[in-house]
Amino acid sequence: MTPPAPDTAPILIVDDMEENLVALEAVLSSLTSKVVRARSGEEALKAMLREEFAVVLIDVLMPGMNGFETAANLKGLDQTKDVPIILLTGASVDPNYAYRGYTVGAADFLIKPFDPWLLRTKVNVFLDLYRKNHQLASQADQLKRLLTGPTPAESPATPAEPHGPAHAPHAPEDAPTPAPPVGDEALSDIASRLAQIELLLRDARDAESAGLADRIAALEQSVERLMAGREV
Q1: I need a surface site. Which of 111, 156, 181, 198 has the fewest CB within 10 A?
Q2: String of DSSP letters for 14-40
Q3: 3-class SS at 179?
Q4: CB-CB contact of 23 with 52 (8 Å)
Q5: Is the model's pLDDT at 155 over the cut of 50?
Q6: SS3 55
Q7: Residue 184 contacts by C-beta under 8 Å, 6 or more apart in sequence?
Q8: Cα–Cα distance between 102 and 44 in angstroms, integer?
């Protein structure tokens, strides 16, 4: 699966009718620079295995693999199971379609003809979540590099032996290399990044994110105490 550019939140639209794809693209193109079309459930599966999408909109009534089957297949694959799905269908449909859509894992269900403003609003929620998740992952990766990455450090000179040529002792090949101390500037940067990650998690507003935010806050306090101890 090809990861998107950091500032891109791609959308996949799936419909067997060209005019419907054109209409959807016209409504959604103002939200992102990349809207990808698929004319069938099979094409949608192939597209999502090639590329990462922020959200996918699927028409329910398609020949071959219909929208429910496409959604179920996407939710059954590890690579695509977390991608939000919005199902779309016409007005004269079975009233149980919405329930069926949610049972296969759809995040939302819209009936045509839909209000363009409403559609953009719903899709934009998933685009914002996608961007925040990528921002959070990037911040976490940068924090990990700060905590574990090597920093230049001078090693003390080894004194020469009293009698004989001066030479440095050889450390065992399997001896672990001690981690260099983290400087005050690096600690300050770490504390700042922890605060940003905590804010992103708080914005997610779910139980798992709240728990992670509490753990990040505790780590942030530990870093601040360490910095305060150095100043004493």
Answers
A1: 156
A2: E-S-HHHHHHHHHHHTTT-S-EEEESS
A3: coil
A4: no
A5: no
A6: strand
A7: 227, 230
A8: 19
SS3 75: helix
Q: CA nearest 5: which of 186, 154, 104, 130?
A: 130
Identify the helix (H) or strand (E) that includes residue 89. strand 85-89
pLDDT in tens, 98-148: 888 889 999 999 988 889 999 999 999 999 999 888 888 778 777 777 777
- List pLDDT tens digits, range 188-223: 767 777 777 767 766 666 666 666 777 777 777 776
Token digits of residue 113: 């003809």
Q: Which of 58, 60, 6 is nearest to 32 (CA)?
A: 6
Residue 162 is predicted with a pLDDT of 52
Q: Alpha helix (H) ranges present in 9-115?
A: 18-28, 41-50, 67-75, 97-103
> Cβ atoms within 10 A of the Cβ of 123, count?
24
